[in-house]
Write a structure and sequence with these properties.
It contains 2 helices and 11 strands, in the order H-E-E-E-E-E-H-E-E-E-E-E-E. The protein is an alpha+beta fold. Strand 10 and strand 11 form a beta hairpin. The mean pLDDT is 88.
């Protein structure tokens, strides 16, 4: 009776490693499943825009609403949409603070504010009211400069603020 080693005759000059063959088998078996899981997570928005990433948050006083992405990538542009209900003819003062100034670079603000300054680690945008307005929306386009969790606060006209987090992948 032939033993198990003789079942598959070895080739001359070839030394087989059972551990390497087992590793290759496991890589084929589990690698495909892992690849499918990564693709599904990306499609659902776990790495940038998508179902798990897109978020909208409103503060308790309904004075500000923020639309943002929970997940982003380092050095890839992200959009932040801030909406405030009509304030009449009073100036609108928008403060963006938390870790925003330290961890991101603001590329574009639309519409352009009448006055813009940095105050105590916060970005302050002032819009003068030319006439009574309805909902007012400001878009900030920025680029994350540091990976990790970033907590940002948004305040409109010194009313209760709104905090939200974003996770930036390296």
């Amino acid at each position: 009776m032939a033993n198990a080693k003789e079942k598959y005759p070895s080739l001359p000059g070839v030394k087989q490693s059972h551990a390497a063959l087992q590793f290759e088998y496991n890589a084929h078996r589990f690698g495909f499943v892992l690849l499918l899981l990564i693709i599904a997570a990306a499609l659902l928005g776990l790495f940038s825009g998508g179902y798990f990433s897109d978020a909208t948050k409103t503060n308790a006083a309904n004075s500000v609403q923020v639309e943002y992405q929970r997940f982003g990538r380092l050095l890839s542009p992200v959009e932040l949409k801030i909406t405030s209900p009509g304030q009449g003819e009073t100036p609108l003062t928008l403060r963006i603070g938390g870790e925003y100034m330290a961890r991101t670079q603001t590329d574009n603000i639309w519409p352009q504010p009448d006055e813009m300054r940095s105050e105590g680690g916060e970005l302050v945008l002032v819009y003068q009211a030319a006439k009574a307005r309805q909902d007012f929306t400001v878009w900030l386009y920025s680029t994350p400069q540091q990976p990790g969790k970033t907590v940002t606060t948004v305040t409109v006209n010194n009313q209760p603020g709104l905090s939200f987090w974003q996770f930036i992948y390296p």
